[in-house]
Amino acid sequence: MTTNALQWTPPTGRSAQLQPAGKAWDAVRVPLSIGIGKRTLELLGDATGAVIENPFDKVLYWLIAPGSASGWDLSLLPDIAVWGATAYVEIPPADFRKGPGVRWRVPPHDRHLTAPAALYAALQTATREALGPREEAPR
After folding, report:
1. Using CA atoms, how far apart are residues 27 and 65, in angstroms rounded to an integer?
2. Which residues contact 18 (CB under 8 A, 6 or more apart)?
3. CA atoms 93, 113, 8, 66: torsion sign
4. Domain ranges in the chain?
5. For labelling, which of 39, 41, 64, 88 has a CA lying 20 to 30 Å from the CA of 47?
């Protein structure tokens, strides 16, 4: 798949930075509260790219190529959102893995993007396991 994602690296220094989504990546915001985030991480295993954890909001963020979730049916994935060009995400420095603030649950070693199809499938399975089968919205 060809992508328009820009080359990107996390910030350096000692604090997280707000960075715009929709350029180098879109962010998929997944709640930890009902178990979907943790289960999605388990289902993806080594196929996951970098994952940001925000313990204050109790969410995980996966980074995917910009626009690659445009065909997703989010009505079947409650509380999951794709943040693109109109959003900013707090990005920790690459070595932030512990501590009280925003940190990397999975650091961006050799890649930061997750394959959108794999992430979508894992989100569907994790949602179904946490909440039961979801019905498609009427068309």
Report:
1. 9
2. 88, 89, 90, 91
3. negative
4. 19-131
5. 88
